[in-house]
Amino acid sequence: MTTETQVTGLSIRHARPEDLETLVELEERCFDVDRISSRQFRYLLKKGNSAILIAEKNGVVLGDVVLLFSRATSVARLYSIAVSPDARGKGIGLSLMKEAETEAWSHHRAYLRLEVRKDNHSAIRLYESLGYRRLGEFVDYYEDHMDAWRLEKSLAPDLHPDLTPVPYYEQSLEFTCGAASLMMAMKALKPETQFSRRLELRLWREATTIFMTSGHGGCGPFGLALAAVNRGFGVDVYITGEGTHLGDSVRSEHKKEVMRLVQEDMYEQLQSFGVPINPSGVTAKEIDDCLSRKGIPLVLISSWQIYKARVPHWVVVTGVDDSFIYVNDPFVDRDEGETLIDSIHMPILKEKFETMARYGRVGLQAMVVLYHD
């Protein structure tokens, strides 16, 4: 791909492996801190879920933009944009941004997100002139401790989701997604809730009902529901299937028996509290109905389509529109270069989400919905 722009003589194309040295040199000219290294550029040029676009004139590279594409969501992330110091103020940044949006749309991404230094006023003006809106901020985000704004633009003008403002909490351990999701829902309904690792671990201990194939156990739907009830929240539970939840994740009959006993005990406690346990599946319509009643749904998904890991995983639903279900995912895949911005209000196509919201051979579906009691 080579695109001519409105800047006379400027063309934009995809970077090639032989551009590596030039990209690194441009990075060194443009930034004093938070540079993309040669090793990182080499990786980005080879991986399938990223794109690097180069702006050049008369064979001289004047700027570049790096895009990352989340695996199972409809978000692209603008990871970096650089314009050579001697070429600034000539519309090159604007041309790169417009081409980045076109590239993201060609990858079926409906949203483009980015972070920008709060003191980079010219970049902020550029982004806002293109229709980017502020989603929030990151404190102490950059290497020199400067804060960042989080910005987003919808590339499909008909998308106007009504998103619930669910505060974000990143799970601190690989097995605490359920506890982290519960914390987010709790704080959305009761803002006085204080995030802390101590609370995360306390909730995990209370809600753990299962053994994993190896390592620590995870949170089952009854355990999360009971932890929420014990803290004064109204709760609905939606669950399909008979038998021990997530029982096919272990082979040991002894472990399965422990899981069964814990689950039965939690079920009886939920019944004594009068918690509705609905034997229905997790559908986009059911989620929308819960949101319309001011509920905050926690949904169990299989993380295979996002993280290529066959493990159960809890997320918080923050909104629904005609095309997408939006979630806060407590896991941030930092090995793939992702940051918090990639895990907040993640848009997932409804059809894909309904497929993801099944786990194991029996296709277990589970949703715990919190309400302000």
From TrEMBL:
Which parts of the chain span the membrane according to its record?
none
Q: What name does UniProt use for this protein?
A: GNAT family N-acetyltransferase
Keyword annotations: Acyltransferase, Transferase
- InterPro entries named among the record's database cross-references: Acyl_CoA_acyltransferase, DUF3335, GNAT_dom, YpeA/RimI_acetyltransf
Organism of origin is Sedimenticola thiotaurini
N-acetyltransferase domain segment(s): 10-156
MF-aspect GO terms: acyltransferase activity, transferring groups other than amino-acyl groups
Range of residues in the leader sequence: none
